[in-house]
Specification:
Radius of gyration: 22 Å
CATH superfamily of the largest domain: Spore Coat Polysaccharide Biosynthesis Protein SpsA, Chain A
Helix content: 40-55%
Shape: elongated
CATH topology of the largest domain: Spore Coat Polysaccharide Biosynthesis Protein SpsA, Chain A
Order of helices and strands: EHEHEHEEHEEHEHHEHHHHHH
Structural class: alpha/beta
Length: 369
């Protein structure tokens, strides 16, 4: 009997034929070859099923849902069928760089404490044109801080240890039709560390087909998971999803900063207290420097929102408190703002250098998500 593959690449697809051939080719063309490619056809009713039926690579395994079950249930089924030591995700409209699996397996084999590994991505539009680079928090501490408010990983770039799921009875939760990855990641991180690689692993397509209703469902699920995570990780914090929404829209995950009134003041104080509780839990000689960096970044977010709102209610006492914690904050923030254009150019150049020569010429056709 042949030994099981080291990696199971898991994809779910429903009626998405336009980008599917490129996504599949990006996996079968990987430099790392010890994998199975498990594709769940979630009851497709168009030519998607015909495209899948035409694949001849023996490493590709197709399973079909008789009816459309949705992404979460399809991924849950895929996890149950996976044979690899590691499970790597990819969506049907994204594209993995040729060394994606090689880089992730190399890291996971050398870092047994890491149960979940992601990475940066190159952002592309619906025509396949590069529009940016998205980085993710790299260290376990940064990941845990980010995870209190939103997902610290990009779902189609993730790789995780299947044994952790098996031993702890974990999988995608059908209760979440969206943000199902965020829910799973935060439960997995109770059993080990997380990490993100600094260089891009995939091309991630930004789509314009999401409805407002679907977007609101995703946000509501995100806030619910964040509130649950905070309550479990920081029992001293009193939190509800509406508080997460206020912080999310004011500081950490959006470009606007609330209304400048009572809501902003409540959000700012909660955000500050959240980090205080987080720092207290993770304070140690090894984390002092990293926590200082995170505290400054959070304070800079609050200060930027103050500037955008031109002095919202409660800004004076909050500023005094931030300065008492870190008198060097104004100088640090000024240097960071001055360096932002250079840093942005540097990241863009590194992303271009990494991608050059790795992509075959493909200009994917348009398809709404």
């Amino acid at each position: 009997m042949p030994s099981p593959p080291l990696v199971t690449v898991l994809m779910s697809v429903f009626n998405e034929p336009a980008f599917l051939p490129d996504a599949i080719q990006s996996i079968v063309g990987q430099t790392f070859t010890d994998f199975e490619f498990l594709i769940v056809d979630d009851g497709s009713t168009n030519v998607t099923s015909d495209l899948l039926a035409g694949i001849r690579d023996p490493r590709v395994r197709i399973v079909r849902n008789q009816t459309n079950l949705g992404l979460t249930r399809s991924l849950k089924r895929g996890v149950e069928l996976a044979a690899g030591r590691y499970i790597a995700r990819l969506d049907a409209d994204d594209f993995a760089f040729r060394d994606r699996l090689e880089k992730q397996v190399e890291f996971m084999e050398g870092h047994k404490e890491v149960v979940l590994l992601g990475g940066a991505c190159t952002l592309i539009d619906e025509q396949g044109r590069r529009i940016g680079l998205r980085n993710c928090p790299e260290s376990d501490l940064e990941i845990r801080w980010t995870g209190l408010l939103t997902s610290p990983f990009l779902h189609p770039a993730a790789m995780f240890r299947r044994q952790v799921l098996v031993e702890n009875n974990l999988s995608y939760d059908p209760a979440f039709g969206t943000a199902q990855d965020y829910d799973l990641w935060m439960r997995m991180l109770k059993h080990g560390q997380g990490a993100n690689l600094s260089h891009p692993l995939i091309r991630y397509r930004i789509r314009s087909g999401a409805t407002r209703l679907r977007r609101e469902e995703q946000l509501n699920n995100t806030f619910q998971i964040a509130a649950r995570t905070i309550a479990e990780e920081l029992p001293g914090m009193k939190v509800d999803p509406e508080q997460i929404r206020l912080v999310w829209t004011s500081f950490s995950c959006a470009d606007r900063a609330g209304d400048g009134g009572d809501q902003w003041e409540r959000a700012a104080r909660f955000y500050r207290d959240l980090f205080t509780q987080f720092a207290t839990k993770y304070q140690s000689d090894k984390t002092n420097s990293a926590l200082t960096s995170l505290r400054r970044r959070q304070a800079a977010e609050i200060l930027r929102s103050m500037l955008r709102l031109k002095g919202p209610r409660g800004w004076r006492p909050l500023t005094v408190q931030l300065l008492r914690q870190d008198p060097w904050l104004p100088i640090w923030s000024g240097l960071k703002l001055a360096a932002a254009p250079v840093r942005k150019f540097s990241r863009s150049f590194r992303g271009f250098a990494h991608n050059a020569g790795r992509l075959r010429d493909s200009s994917p056709r348009s398809l709404l998500r």
